[in-house]
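hiii so my PI (J.) wants the whole complex modelled not just the main chain, which honestly fair. so below is everything: two entries, each one labled with what it is. i double checked the lines twice but i was tired so who knows lol
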Amino acid sequence: QKEVEQNSGPLSVPEGAIASLNCTYSDRGSQSFFWYRQYSGKSPELIMSIYSNGDKEDGRFTAQLNKASQYVSLLIRDSQPSDSATYLCASHFNDYKLSFGAGTTVTVRA
Amino acid sequence: DADVTQTPRNRITKTGKRIMLECSQTKGHDRMYWYRQDPGLGLRLIYYSFDVKDINKGEISDGYSVSRQAQAKFSLSLESAIPNQTALYFCATSDPRVAGEEQYFGPGTRLTVT
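here's the output for the full assembly
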């Protein structure tokens, strides 16, 4: 069983719309959750981290965590063509290991 | 200047050749990691190091070895490259003193084994 699962996508949204990305994780002991953005051929870039239940907002990005449901999501409001990328969900499962989902590719249509 | 650098950025090599990928960081982080990325499979951990004297295997270490020459340098070697090691390789660093301990990635090395 994969430790971190993401909705497979690809996800296509019109410019200005909300893109919604979902992620589930298997280890109830997980404490830290991250969203990375990766442009094609480039390295992952951290865009959001969340550690407690609820919402965390940073500009157009909102991360949501529900530990009871083992679910973390990322909302991108007012999507822009520059948001077109692959988004990776990741979680710490123990002292060192950061497990990544396979990623969801988002395309924002102008 | 980039905090985490990788050399080379691109490499094409032949089956059976030995190749080394290098990673350097100026972030002052003790922990360093090597990942490979294949299409549709996400990032998979090859090796990780908590400090110069501590090196550990990740989930896919077969066919790879590493060397931690200093706090700032962590090298990955393929002793005898094979075509299924063709992938994008990333080095990453983290600071365990920081809450959450986010990992920061280098620019990657695209390796092709023919």
